[in-house]
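ENTRY TYPE: protein
WANTED: fold as tokens:
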Amino acid sequence: MIYLHPIIGAASLLLLAYVASLGFRMRTARRDRAKLAAWHTRLAPIAYAAVLASWLIGAGSALWLRTDLDFAASLHFRTGCAMAILLTGSVLTSRAMRAGSAAAREIHPWLGASAVLLAVAHAATGLRIMP
């Protein structure tokens, strides 16, 4: 049970990286842009839910299963919270983009890219506290 968060977390971050790569390729693609956008739109909510679920499982694991950790004291917890906030902003801007917001279209890729970069730091800090 103690390894559930690292396994789900790794899978979530891999999915997040793939969704981000779809978004990046969509912005630079000359053809198949609609196909990439459809995949990005389809997979992004799943990646978001997976990251939030992993965050919840990780918080629960630290609180109830890891007596060697102080709850919410690690850099890993803080990067997880920041990643969840960035991805929530990404979700909100994606909704605004569908409503036609030009500002959301400018902000959305920066939120996603920041979340993916933060995910690297999050994984590194997680490796330091592995059981």
